[in-house]
Every structure is written in C-alpha cells, then in structure tokens.
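Ticket #4471: structure export looks truncated?
Reporter: QA, pipeline team
Priority: medium

Steps to reproduce: submit the single chain below to the structure queue and open the exported record.
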Amino acid sequence: MNVLYVTYSDDHPDAKSQDKVIEYLKHFQTDVDITKMDITHIPKESKLNTYDLIILFFHYQEDMPEAAVKLIKYVKEGGTVVALHGAAASFKGNDDWFEFIGGKFVSHPPICKFCVEAGKYKGKITDEIYFMQIKEDIKIHANSIFEGRMSPCLWERKHNEGKIVYLALGHDLNAVDSDVFRHMFDMALKISTERI
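Actual output as written to the record:
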C-alpha cells in the first residue's frame, strides 16, 4: 500500500503524535510505503493519483485553495482520504473543503474526558471533543458524548468513485497514545479500505 501522510509543522499535532499515527498505520498494514509531506507542498504535487490512501493530520488555519482543490479532485477521481482531528478546522472560509469533509468545526470545550461509542464499543478518552456542523448524507460510525451532548466523531462521505473518512479525535499525544484513539483509527482505516 502506497500512502501519502500529510502534516503541517511539528506544532499541532506535535511530532510525537504524528509518529504515533505512522506506528499504528504500520501495525495495521505491514506492507506499506509511507511518504510524509507538508500540506504546503500539496499545490505543487502532481502525483496524488499514485497513492492508494492519503492521511491528513494537520491544522492549517488559513485557506489554501490550491491544496484543497487537489485533494478534493483526488477523491472525486476514486481516491481515499482519512482525515484526522484538525483537518476539519483547517482552510477556514473554504466552503468546498467543508463540503468535502462532510462537517465543519464549530467549537470545543477545554480538553476533557468523554465517552466514545461505536456500535457495541464504548471507551473513554481525554481529548478535545469537536462539536460540528455536519452534512446530512454522511455515514456516522461513532459518536462522542460529553455532558449529555452527542457529536459524531467518525464518519465517511462518498464523492463519486472515492470517499473521505473523518476521525475527530487526536488533539495531542495523550489522546493519540490512548487505546480509544488506536481503536477508532483502526476503524477509520478499515472503513477506508472497504469498497464503495
């Protein structure tokens, strides 16, 4: 499997969190070739269609329309993206990006402990819980629950022949290094490899 892993600096998420995701990916798929790239290089990248999967783990506040257009085109032409945490809070003001992700970040309380439920699975994680404005046609696989309020935290959205899978968890190493994140990231990878 040929994977493009897209990040931005070592600030948010930090370098150790980024490395932990690579570790999980290598455990999930032992035969994997991973190329790590900064999101700012995507507009110049002409070979996105050579990747079997693109993982987005970055928070880039300003809009970058060239990168958004390339990633959206990749999926619409049959590619698969797994986007984590801050990807849904990135490219502020770009409505096409939020249409693509299937949800738009609205707010989060301070880092806290909350429950994650996916079918029969239930776990607790200390992380940022994202409250999102979501599209009606997303397929929800898991929810976060905090103080009686539920918010989808794992979903997929199809675009033509491709799809995006979004996981809202993963603010810092404490969250990423948890059993709940690992379980949900494995779920996201499994969903990403299912045929449409």
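Status: closed, not a bug. The export was complete when the record was re-opened. Leaving a note from the reviewer for reference: The CA atoms of residues 82 and 165 lie 5 Å apart.
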